[in-house]
Amino acid sequence: MREPNSTATIPSGPDAARINAQLVARLERLPVTRRLTLIRIIIGSATFFDAYTVLAIAFAMPQLAAEWHLSAGEIGMILSAGYVGQIFGSLFFGHLAERIGRLPVLLITILLFVTMDIACLFAWGAWAMIVFRFLQGIGTGGEVPVASAYINEFIGAKKRGRFFLLYEVIFPVGLMFAGIAGYLLVPVFGWKAMFIVGLIPAVLTIPMRALMPESPRWLASTGRVKKADAVVSMLENEALKAGAALPEPVVRPVDPKATARSDWRELFKGIYRKRTFTIWFLWICVYMVNNGLITWLPTLYKQTFNLPLQTSLAYGWVTSAVGVIASILCALLIDRVGRKRWYSVAFLASTVPLIILTALGAVSATQVVVFASVAYAILQTISFSLYLYSAELYPTRLRAIGTGFGSAWLRAGSAVGPLLVGWIVDNFGVSYVFTVFAAVALIGGLITIVFAIETKGRVLEELSP
Length: 465
Known about the structure:
By secondary structure, the protein is mainly α. It has one domain (about 15-245, about 260-465): Growth Hormone, Chain: A (Up-down Bundle). The chain has 19 helices and no strands.
């Protein structure tokens, strides 16, 4: 077994790129240790409740709409308000994470969305809920992209997809949990019970501060190489104590620009321009469809098909559940299949159940729950894994802000989806919703085929030389 490198007196300046390359090489050869698993569990717990918070309003809405006598337009605005806030949160906190680090930003975002969860309990009408959900969205919008960058920066290329997506699968599980909570709690305790459950993440800030190190890649990229070395050495020592054999690190040249300060304008220059616009369109397409479906379905079952409240919530939960199953399969297979091939096939395959639903006229709740759930499950494999793909497209100095910019368009698509459903239902009828969504999924598939790059099995620094 090889003893970890010792770089107690690390220089700075011209040698920073060389040292950064050494640290990256040492990270790449690390196994998945107990510490890394613990990091995934803690961050995954925060992401779980982020997902729960995003969808809680959908399962509160059937009762809320009846209690407040909301129109379809008001329902759409409340459902979309959180996503609009997420646009601002992902942009602001993605930028802030490049300046002050990943961990401080994660703490701030969790506290923000928990605080606004409390405020939602005291909402007295549609506009109060819209404002509180917007502010809550700022926090939830910042947490996931920064968490994605943080997790990605610890894991080597060969294990990255599986490790990351087994963390990220917690997001659709959180969506499913929102459905279970809605089914069990709302009919008995009312819509406020959904927001009371959302207060749990506040306790996560304690283990985050005590047990999680800052990203060594971020530390090295900002010139704090001694701190980065301390983190890598800790991980190496823990691996050795667990009986792992550490191979010699394979040092690859790292461009000196890797340790430069981040500049958001670089997202639109050189090789990153095409990547940036491609990932933006993928985010928009998949989330416009999936969030349009998942947030509106419980209300459609109750208001359009006149199902009882519990049945409407149960049908909504079924859609979330099949999304989780599909996500787990994706997490286990995507390192073998590849990102580009998976996304191309999934986008195109999802158009089939949506077109079938259009042809049938979506005249019954049974048709909708079957075919909409199949389309949602297929697209969920894209929506939950795009954070992995986004983080792979950019260098460390741009990773959080690039993922934040991309997920801002996720939020835009998520905001447009519910509004679009409300407008189409009011003016044309339910079946046309699925026609539009099939067209959006088709566009996503064509963009993937023409413009996306493959990232599986490649070191982050190799993808962004």
